[in-house]
Amino acid sequence: MAGKRKRGAEPVNGEAKKRATGATPNNDPLSPITIQIITGSYERALHGFTATIPRATLNSIQEEPQATLTDTSQKEQASTPEDSSTRVSFSDTFLFNAHRSSLTTLALSPLSPTTSKITLATGSTDAQIQLYSLSTSPPAPSSVSKPTLTPTPIHENPQNRELGTLQHHASTVTHLAFPTHGKLLSASLDNTIGVTRARDWTLLSSIKAPVPKAVGRPSGDTAAQGEVPAGVNAFAVHPSMKLCVSVGRGERCMRLWNLVTGKKAGVLNFSRELLARAGEGKFGRGEGLSVVWDDEGEEFAVGFERGVVVYELDARPRSTIIPSPRTKVGRLRYLPLENKHRKVLALSTEDGRVLFYDTTAAAILKDNAAQPQDGKDSGTDVEKTATFLGQLGGRTVGVSGRIKDFKVLVTPDATTHPQNKRLLIITASSDGAVRVWSASHQELEVAGAELENGEKEVEKTLENGAISAKVNGNTTSERQIGKLLGTYETGHRITCLEAFIMSAPASVPEDSTREKEAWEGAESSSSDDDEEDDEEE
């Protein structure tokens, strides 16, 4: 019976696949953009929902000139589309009770053109890692169902399902990352970084960081009496996949790890002067809370409680960032720009803003700066500050809640239509609001060019395209970048967020079953299919 095929499993491809599923791929320049958004919360809920953005909305934003918002009515008119054809629509896709306690971190595996699935990993304070398989295909219109208690429609997809649990950590999971399709890295407060193989979810190695020495109990320490604060707060993998940088609790240093050998590659201490420039006062903890590499691996940034230090590839500090007005710093992310020679770092704050800084402009200003009169290096590289480009959100536009996490995506038609390339920024506030923003590369390019021309050009920029407001009794002007497209209230206290653009075509119905067998380690053969055909006949 070899060569026989199951009835109803006729391959579907091309236009036939579109007609069979009712969904169109996201790379169509006329089809709407569908974003799958996933949030974790203190309430242990893993909430997934989609945001569908019509192309007309992005086109209208690109065509309209930048204007100054002066009153509340104009802000609401600019941020809320009037026509239903240009309104961003939200719909729920799944809601899982993922963990026994609050979620701390999320991670998505890289998108692959060969499959319509993506793996989601979730970490929690219960020391466990949950794995889920999510569909990357936009939901079909026929799958919508109307709930009885909420006006939000539901697009439930049976292909979104749980895979299993990893239990190789003994304390809170603080950070997760998929550097490649085949590896999952996880950090925990048990002072380990685990490397797991995604094919069969086997723990390949565990990198052990030393326990810091007890030098007194810092302010805000939650360690038990007689213990010292310890654990890995965050890590970042170099694009070469050979080097990893980590920062931990209770130590004023960052550690370099050789991922080829799994051993320590070096330790770089934070000097007292550097911590002072990064906003760490006398009673500050002085520990790094986050770290991130840029896409090219030419620089990385370490985030502290109230500031950021940008390092060069050779681990020399290049510049520092202190938000103004001063506030706590949250998530750090580098923006994917067309100009690879420019580095723009985005960071979220406790007062509801996402700030954008040009970290390469600081290096240019450093090279052109006057040398000391004695001809000696004063060692003040760290005193250089990155160039502030603008902000997104904030009290001036009615956003004051702490932004716990955010994600930056690029419209899928960027390669075929570079002039239409836009950034989609999804922000998650601690009050449960998820906002979708749109920004263009031109806004960041123009801001960088204007700020490099001098103070006079800066004043002109602030007069045209900025919002004036009173913060703590002082009148300030901040250059606003981007525009609000839509807001979704989750009803949960959000702790972490992930998102991706759903661009894969809908898969054949049998794919979910075969993939489940593959995850469980069973290999399907043609003989098994033949036996099922015989039973049906």
Describe the structure.
By secondary structure, the chain is an alpha+beta fold. It contains 9 helices and 32 strands.
Sum this structure up briefly.
The protein has 537 residues and is α+β, with helices and mostly antiparallel strands.
User: Class by helix and strand content?
Assistant: alpha+beta
Specify the CATH class. Mainly Beta
Number of strands: 32
C-alpha Rg, in Å? 25 Å
Mean pLDDT: 77
Shape: globular
- The CATH topology is what? Methylamine Dehydrogenase, Chain H
**Which band does the percent of strand residues land in?**
35-45%
Key phrases:
PAK1-Kinase_Regulator; 38% strand; 32 strands; alpha+beta; 537 residues; WD40 repeat-like protein; WD40_rpt; WD repeat; Methylamine Dehydrogenase, Chain H; 9 helices; WD40_repeat_dom_sf; globular
